[in-house]
Design goal:
It is built from six helices and nine strands; from the N terminus they run βααααββββββααββ. By secondary structure, the protein is an alpha+beta fold.
Length: 252
């Protein structure tokens, strides 16, 4: 997937064989959906070498979800935005969400999965203490901009910290450069990840859209280093609890 994945399980009854299954799942997703591998099904489908009916059923499911997110974001989420078929903005979050569900089925109530800043947390790392997920500052790689705290959350960050200007604004065909980082907190990671990608593509229009996004809270840093967050974000970030949310000026 072009990123590192860590799985932190805090349940004594979950053995190494379970983690083998989890990493087996991620390997399967990579083999099917990797845009870095010319032999993957998604690469071959994008080049027209195979038909959708010849692909794994998960490919059709993912592309349907991508189309739905595209409609709900005014076209800012587009699996063809780069000029090639690339549903990575949804696949990564979806694969982590599935992996978390697999862990729950195998008896894990307390775990954290982190795939390059897309994070799914459940339960607690130890009794009485919630998970803490640090969000890397886009301009200071050795610093955190905010820490998200919780027990059953999905956290997705999209920005240029890891991969530069890799998100394309589908309406202009240019790299999305007005926002440096968008972090969303939501109930599950598939949509939370895709929405973060779409918001980054929106640029300065994102605050208006994020303010009305149901079941999600957002923390945004623009290219000039200005910070904005939705009114409800502070309940996941105690350090912000006593600070009024600033306002970015949406594009007119």
């Amino acid at each position: 997937m072009g990123t590192a994945i860590s799985v932190d399980v805090r349940d004594a009854g979950v053995g190494p064989n379970v983690l083998d299954d989890i990493y087996g799942w991620f390997q399967r997703v990579d083999e099917i959906f990797s845009t870095y591998k010319q032999s993957s099904q998604i690469s071959r489908l994008g080049r027209g070498e195979i038909r959708l009916a010849e692909c794994d059923p998960d490919v059709g499911w993912v592309l349907e979800r991508c189309a739905e997110v595209g409609r709900s974001t005014g076209g800012y989420f587009d699996s063809w935005a780069t000029g090639m078929l690339d549903p990575s903005g949804l696949v990564k979050g979806w694969s982590v969400e599935v992996a978390s569900a697999m862990l729950v089925e195998r008896g894990s109530a307390n775990h954290c999965i982190n795939a390059g800043g897309d994070i799914r947390i459940r339960g607690e790392p130890e009794p009485g203490r919630p998970w803490r997920a640090g969000i890397v500052h886009p301009f200071e790689r050795d610093a955190l901009t905010v820490v998200v705290v919780g027990r059953d959350l999905a956290v997705a960050t999209s920005g240029f910290t890891e991969r530069g200007l890799h998100v394309i604004d589908p309406h202009t065909g240019r790299g999305a450069s007005n926002l440096a980082s968008v972090t969303l907190v939501g109930p599950e990671l598939t949509l939370t990840d895709a929405y973060a990608t779409a918001a980054l593509a929106m640029g300065l229009d994102a605050p208006r859209w994020l303010s009305g996004l149901a079941d999600h809270e957002a923390y945004v840093i623009d290219a000039g280093g200005h910070v904005w967050w939705t009114d409800g974000f502070a309940r996941y970030a105690p350090a912000l609890a006593t600070t009024p949310a600033p306002r970015l000026t949406p594009r007119t």
